[in-house]
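Predict the holo structure. Ligand: manganese (II) ion.
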Amino acid sequence: MINPILDVDILGQVHELVTRAQNIVITCHKSPDGDAIGASLALCRVLRAMGKRTDVVVPDTVPRTLHFLPMMRDVTVFTKAELRAKHLIEQADIIFCLDFNSMSRIDKLGALINESQAPRVLIDHHLGPDRSAYAVLISYPEASSTCELVYRLLCEVGYAHLIDEPVAECLYVGIMTDTGNFTYSSSNPELYEIVANLMTYGIDKEQLYKLAMNTFSADSVRLQGYALSEKMQIFADKGMALITLTKEELAHFHYRKGDTEGLVNKPLAIPEVTRVIFMREDAECIKVSCRSQGNCSVNEICERHFNGGGHRNAAGGDFYGTMDEALDKFFTILSEINND
Ligand code: 5GP
Ligand code: MN
């Protein structure tokens, strides 16, 4: 049985806000992943089915591997269409904020949303939400994904009859990608009841796995092979693995956004590795991505050293400086680690 988890007052507030709204904007974190975009599109489709003018506005581009999702064409990308995004936000009567816990996670789009008077509804599973920024807070760090929370919300608020196959596809993709295809954050038996319900809409889970999690260009498979064979360092006494990729290396493999997806998880296959730090030199900064095993955490490392955060076993942040400086930072972190 799927037990209700949401507070009755919160459900009442969401229903009232939605009933009174004509124009709704949904946004999610930058570099949207399957959970962020899946949750946004699923909620968007349900709200449109209720006759609400609803738009998904994302901070930056969505990786190509997620372009197959239904209604992707309707998504407004802030970095490509600033004026349209501004217009939609100005018109919005409510702004749903999905899969992030603080407005700083959405860059310049956050500043625009901060100017709007529209109440914000947070639906998220990250630790430590910025409570003051939202009129309604649906924050469950124990949930597998924001898509799980959107499914529960739709059922508990009484909109389940509006779930159709495309909505189920979007929600399934978010749950699947955020749990590494049901590897982690997926021990709650109720999650499998939710998945069983989603399956009744006729979704093709094998195809969704192939499209969302196992489609890479030849260049990207080669880049990942190169990163693992030439650029992975293991510090066995600290349980740490490091991978770095510079701009030049990325350019050599014609890097496109999404090409290193999943790479950071690979070193965890090695029994002595409990933490992985992956540093990729992007245009504006060095993107840091971390993963860990069991009780070893990485979110504090990202909060303290990379102005970031995340979950205990999956976190990230940014580093502003050269790769050499980032490496110095890495060795500081390494010296602070007692292999627990
Ligand atoms: P990924 O390594 O897949 O980019 O991110 C893994 C998780 O780390 C995300 O789900 C998110 O919770 C967190 N994360 C990644 N980048 C950042 C960042 O720049 N800031 C914060 N606060 N969290 C991040
Ligand atoms: Mn998520």
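The chain is about 40% helix and 20% strand. The chain has a mean pLDDT of 96.
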